[in-house]
Here is the input.
Amino acid sequence: MRVNDLEFFNRLLDYRNILYICHRNADPDAIGSAYTLAEAIGGTVGIVDDCNRVAANVIDKLNIPTVLCPDPDDYDMTVVVDTSTRGQLNDLKLKKFCLIDHHATTALLDDAEFYIHEEATSTIEIIFRILNAAGVPISPKMGLAMITGIITDTGHLKHANASTFKTLSGIMEISGVDYFDALELMAATPQDISIRIAMLKAAMRCKVERVGDCLIATTNVSSYGGAAASMLTNIGADIAFVGSVKDGNTVRVSGRAKRDMILSGVNLGKLMEDVGDKYNGTGGGHSGAAGIDAECPLESLMSDCKEYVRKLLAGEAAESLLCSEISSAYPDKETELF
Ligand SMILES: [Mn+2]
Here is the structure.
């Protein structure tokens, strides 16, 4: 059931022991959302496996207490934050849960006790509204975590809209945090040599296909697929798909598309959802940044993604695939949602 901002807050007050769970490879939007709610209402920040580099740095610098691989059975209520598929929670068994999310599509609404789901440039933006509605003060630590989440989810504000800036300004006013302090916190994020190696390998293995004026780049890496796909669109690809073989039989494809592609009708979130369905996998995300996890040969998944784009560009796509909303096309562009 969709609830309004204040109702979301008030309902959570009924529970004593709440788990706020972030998607795997948690980013600052997920961590900031979970932490802010935990500070405002009480509860535990849970991480399903790992955090990305910037989020790990935020947790470290702000001393945010987190629990790794929590069991939802140990809590009265689980709040799923910034997450649109069960796959992003590593298929964690959820007992009673509610959801707060800003991704274009989400597969979790039906089973949620209650939820707020709407497109915004970050989940933090929705959380800020909730705190305002409930009259909860924002501490400097909460403010820093929130601002970091907004900056990363908007690709360093490249994809920010009027509401993003209003939220940022509100957070700074209420928490007293300087924008500079948030930038400092992020600048302290250590550069990891393994990411740089992955980017170079992705570039070496890259194949390019031209369809009309569109360049589709495909490659594979064992990790940092999302960052590799972003890199390929930054160096010239219009659309990039990066495959990774995960543990066991699971494979993952991360996709990124340039803004022009989205304006001409490409919606990677929908593409990943449709291709994921075919393989009983989980796919989804934003129009410009999305991913799939499935148990199937990586080659088939990659070639289906490419084939889907070819058809889309040839005008065979249904109207429903067209993306009209550009504002939340890349919330996680600079981080690695998938
Ligand atoms: Mn997000």
